[in-house]
Amino acid sequence: MIGLTENAAKEIRKVIIENSLPEGTGIRIGIKGGGCAGFTYVFDFDDQIGEFDEVFESQTLNVIVDKKSLIYIDGTVVDFNTGLTDRGFKFQNPKADAACGCGTSFTPKAPSFG
């Protein structure tokens, strides 16, 4: 499951309204290789659900995640920091072993079997 804090949901709703995005638009969260720590987060708006997507509801918003990304980010909580020096979305990922200083990329923990 992927969760949103109240601050993150408030900011997402604000952007949806400001950009006149279609009703039912949610947030798509995923990962791709890259960034200074190995994987970088992908964060965008979407109103299409694919056959390989999981959908979670958090703070009355749809959070869409492809199943491959979910392996590495399951349990993540997305927050939005309103501070002047570090304003933006922050990812609290329990499956991250390390993260870069800006918090947009991470190194996953080694899988445990057994």
From TrEMBL:
GO terms for molecular function: 2 iron, 2 sulfur cluster binding; 4 iron, 4 sulfur cluster binding; iron ion binding. GO terms for biological process: iron-sulfur cluster assembly. Residues 2-103 form the Core domain. It comes from the Bacteria. This is Iron-sulfur cluster assembly accessory protein.
